[in-house]
Amino acid sequence: MKLQSLLAASFASALIVSASASAQDRSDWPEKFTVGTASQGGTYFAYGSGWAHFISENLGVSGGAEITGGPMQNMALVHTGDLKFGLTTLGPAQESIDGNSPLAPGMKMDNVCAIFPMYQTPFSVTALAGSGIKSISDIPDGAKIGFGPAGSTSDTYFPKMMDALGVKYERRNGSWSDLGGQLQDGLIDVVAFAAGIPIPAVSQLEVQTDVNIIGMTDEEQAKILKNFPVSKFDIPASTYQSLDQPSHVVSMWNFAIANCDVPEDFVYEITKLTMENNDKMVGIHKAAKSSIPENYSKNTVLPWHPGAARWFNEHGYKIDDSQIK
């Protein structure tokens, strides 16, 4: 009995010490956090809101998603500390870091750190099947094209891509859900999507009407690759019921970001939870198949948050000190 009592006392003491250490570790953690996403109907909102819930549920910190204008605005909100976390695309991230954001010209948003790779954003075009538009060259002069929310990755780059391909258009902005509805109602002719796949708004459109999901010819793809910070990408035929073969397009990488002043231990635990549970992330959104540690090297733009860098370095994914904020 004495031995049992001694063991019980030791175990209880260990629990107290462990609990105290845990409380101490969390002493500088925020009471709550918000993730900047984008408009409803797009992948950012679905991915970001699901990820925020996943983190909140597992780490016991209240968290949620905020609808924003997308990558460019998320860079600004995370830089200023208005949001702790956000999602961004490397093209808009580079422009923001360089002080070329249209939201705050001249402001170098250098207090934003990468925490983990998300997925690639393909640039693709959708039109109603009844429109007769089956290729980019079929888009008639003066066509009304929806480019997503103002300041989004699509709105930042797709108009320039269309210009490079000689398309003459009238520009429209709005949430992906709204633009999908406008396309279906005949108020616009084309939606130029840039979002992780499958895009909820496109999947919804397919249920309600026949659509053409339009890729790029080899010549069009080569021209875009030469002039923009993108890479080749194939949208698998299995992504949408409207595709019977892969759609050749271009893409840009997305990363989750944090304000660089968010406590290191908090970001470490978030990175650990996310990178070690890809099956749970894929359950949130299929695009998370690419949210794996091996893709950390795709970040050629943002400094790494110390907490995230610690997890990657511990697991053999080398991040040099010069790349850490």
From TrEMBL:
<dbReference type="Pfam" id="PF16868">
    <property type="entry name" value="NMT1_3"/>
</dbReference>
<protein>
    <submittedName>
        <fullName>TAXI family TRAP transporter solute-binding subunit</fullName>
    </submittedName>
</protein>
<dbReference type="InterPro" id="IPR011852">
    <property type="entry name" value="TRAP_TAXI"/>
</dbReference>
<feature type="signal peptide">
    <location>
        <begin position="1"/>
        <end position="23"/>
    </location>
</feature>
<keyword id="KW-0732">Signal</keyword>
